[in-house]
Amino acid sequence: MNEFINIFSSQDPGTVSTAVQLLILLTIFSLAPGILILLTSFTRVIIVLSFTRTSLATQQMPPNQVLIGIALFITFFIMAPTFQEINQEALTPLMNEEIGLEEAYDRASSPIKHFMADHTRQKDLQLFLNYSDADPIESIDDIPLTVFVPAFTISELKTAFTMGFLIFIPFLVIDMTVASILMSMGMMMLPPVMISLPFKVLLFVLVDGWYLIVESLLAGFN
């Protein structure tokens, strides 16, 4: 502990700078899961993919690891322009000691706020603004992240559930059709899911379902 204190009390600017950079990196890594889930497109992507698997009734196919991996890389693809802007405007100048921590935070939060503003419903944002003690808002940059993050999250949840409902409809029709046919044939003991599953998978493959879903996700963030 004494060595850690000595690092920050050192008179060598290079040593202090390295220690500060290391502290910043450790902080970012510790907050990375929350940042990834709540400040990016990850929430919508993983919920829509999960709805797709549930509507197909394929149990654990694709596995959770595959869905999360796909969601992560789609998120990185969608967020790439925002991350590049943060790196150019905030991280690189901070590492080069051109700006301070406070200015770096302001520069890094601005692209994130603009991204969230494009996908946050005005109604959700106003809800949290009304219950906060925030100063009068003149621009997007004036809205604190404590207001933006929950508003963005509930907007993403509504959008994801809406997409999930639309994905469910065609598969629900197949289930109802198969169940009606089995009942008319007197095969009430045969689970409809066993019969409808191959037809749902066949339909999903024929219409190139994964392509359509990913295309819809990308278009929603374009």
Helix-strand layout with pairing:
Blueprint (H helix, E strand, L loop, with lengths): L1 H7 L4 H26 L3 H15 L7 H32 L5 H18 L3 H9 L14 H40 L7 H15 L2 H12 L2
Helix pairs in contact: 3-4, 3-7, 4-5, 5-7, 6-7, 7-8
Radius of gyration: 24 Å
Number of helices: 9
Helicity, as a percent range: over 70%
Distance between the termini: 48 Å
Shape: elongated
Keywords:
single chain, mainly alpha, about 220 residues, disordered N terminus
Could you walk me through the main structural features you see in this protein, from its secondary elements to its overall organization?
The structure is a single chain. The protein has 9 helices and no strands. Helix 3 runs parallel beside helix 7.
The gist of it:
The chain has 222 residues and is mainly α. The chain has 9 helices and no strands.
